[in-house]
Amino acid sequence: MKISTKGRYALRMMIDLAEHQEEGFISLKDISTRQDISKKYLEQIIAIVNKPGVLRANRGSQGGYRLAKPAKEYTVGEILRLTEGSLSPVECVDSNPVDCPRSAECPTLPMWQHLSKIINEYLDSVTLQDLVDNHQSQFTDNYVI
Fold first, then answer.
1. N or C: which end of the chain has fewer CB within 10 A?
2. Burial of 17 by CB count in 10 Å (0-12 exposed, 13-18 middle, 19+ buried)?
3. How far is Cα 87 from Cα 81, in angstroms, rounded to an integer?
């Protein structure tokens, strides 16, 4: 499994929105500048991520985007599934029950199912707030004398 640029940039965009939540609606131009991601690419990502319960949008000169809920209520898994679809390492474990004619005698199926479970559980255990806190601690714990 390889996370695409779209998935990685969606996470960066969501972290940026979380870090600037107190500023109200944030323009894509501002996110683009801070994250060094083209505005055009962010527009493609917004089209995927801008769903009810995920983001709130405001049009006009003071328009932009903001998180629809607190950062601690978003998981990395949730965000990546919006942009990537499935996070399974192989296609055969995407469906339940497994839709493969060889599943009954496949020696690797249990391993792929276990790996998929570990990936999803881990990504669902990390919140947007965890990423924000980790990023901010990199700057606050850096003392120079």
1. C
2. buried
3. 7
Q: Per residue in 100-111, pLDDT tens?
A: 788 788 999 899
Give pLDDT tens digits for 74-121: 999 999 999 998 898 888 888 777 777 887 889 998 999 999 999 999
Class of residue 126 by CB neighbours under 10 A (exposed 0-12, middle 13-18, buried 19+): middle
Report how far Cα 54 is from the mean position of its chain's Cα atoms: 11
Single-letter residue type at 71 = A
* Average pLDDT value over all residues in the chain: 90
What letters, b where the CB count within 10 A reaches 16 and e where it falls short, cover 20-36? beeeebbbbeebbeeee
